[in-house]
Amino acid sequence: MANDLYLPKAEHKFSFGLWTVGNRGRDPFGDAVRPGLSPVQIVEMLGEVGAWGVNFHDNDLVPIDATPQQRDQIVRDFRKACGENGIVVPMATVNLFYDPVFRDGAFTANDSDVRAYSLQKTMKAMDLGAELGAEIFVLWGGREGAETDACRRPDEAIKRFRDAINYLCDYNSAQGYGYRFALEAKPNEPRADIYFPTTGSYLAFIETLDNPDMVGVNPEVAHEHMPGLNMTHAVAQAWEMGKLFHIDLNDQVPGRYDQDLRFGSANIKAAFWLVKFLEDVGYENPRHFDAHAYRTEDYEGVKDFARGCMRTYLILKEKARRWNENKEIKRILDEISENDRKSNVGSAGDLLNKEFDRSKLASMGLQYEKLDQLTIDILLGAD
Ligand SMILES: [Mn+2]
User: Annotated catalytic, 246?
Assistant: First the structure.
């Protein structure tokens, strides 16, 4: 059956955070619309919809004020539920944004006690993740920013952030956890401006760390689309540098507040190029959906949302296969690659003496209109 193509399987490595399907629909203007689900209930739901993995912030799983005994009981129950539902824990992260203590940032806060507490909280979150088998540790610095640059020099914030990541890399080595850290950029929200606003900012920063090999990025569709950037280009740069350790899939209309929409639901063409890229290059790390259901949905609607994320990915994967096998597209791509092979730059002396026919080079149509329409035909099912 053709529709089997669109059923999620473990090999697809589809994961959801506890905070995604567990999202209760709170927004800045309204309270929760759905009852809370326990981590065990969420794992049961993920098993039911066919997901492969579950991720968590420390406090999604263990409340910030839990006793050590409560923590251990929660971990036991959660581990059991994962086992019973065939769900793995590929990634863990730390919440350094919700508690009021982080109002001025975590690793970049002006108060050194806040910075030290943030490191301690992160190390404990790393312990928790390692206990449950996580191999990737995501860091999203939601509060690492400013409303006014009067508060600190931004280069000081960058230095503090570097010190924190170096410290955590040392802890990772000392404990033998073998985590790969994945830094997640966002330009703004909840702060007016967040440091390291784009994936490219982090890719440059990583090279300045003591252990750059231990650190990569976690690009998120919504975070690149908010300022109108091209997610696939950010992902491609990370991939080409060997830094695409994790990915957050969702959707977002550019220029709006942080929407975290179901994957592919707003910009189907952008989602297509992203899936095609990931599949063409053979990306094998988790495919994490960092999104949540509309505020209008009940429990069943949340499952529709989760199934929809995975189904859209798999439909687009099949569309990418059709794109790669389309004869007309292949013919145009062959012509493009012929043009790619015409010139060999050679030595500087040879190149300086070579004559180019500029007007001829500029006169030939490149057929990108046709290529794009063939893409649209495939996406709309008219191929
Ligand atoms: Mn995210």
Answer: no
Distance (angstroms) between ligand 1 centre and the Cα of 364 equals 43
**In the chain, where the domains are located:** 11-321, 326-350+357-379
The answer for 305, left when phi > 0, alpha when psi is -120 to 50, beta otherwise, is alpha
The CATH class of the 11-321 domain is alpha beta
Contacts of 84 (CB under 8 A, 6+ apart): 47
In 3D, which of 194, 168, 199, 170 has the Cα closest to residue 183?
199
Instruction: List the catalytic residue out of 12, 58, 60, 357.
Output: 60
Asked whether residue 81 carries a pLDDT value surpassing 70, the answer given is: yes
Buried b (16+ CB within 10 A) or exposed e, 5-41: ebebeeebbbbbbbbbbbbebeeeeeeebbeebebbe
CA of 220 to the centre of ligand 1 (A): 6
Range 30-37, long-range pairs (CB < 8 A, 24+ positions): 30/295, 33/295, 33/296, 34/297, 34/298, 34/299, 34/302
Q: How close is the Cα of 139 to the center of ligand 1, in Å?
A: 9
pLDDT tens digits for range 202-222:
999 999 999 999 999 999 999
Could you confirm whether 233 is annotated as catalytic? no
Pairwise CA distance, residues 57 & 129, whole Å? 9
Centre of ligand 1 to C-alpha 179, Å, is 18
Buried (b) or exposed (e) across 307-326, using 16+ Cβ within 10 A? bbbbbbbbbbbbbbeebeeb
What's the predicted TM-score (pTM) here? 0.97
Residue 73: CB atoms within 10 A of its CB come to: 13
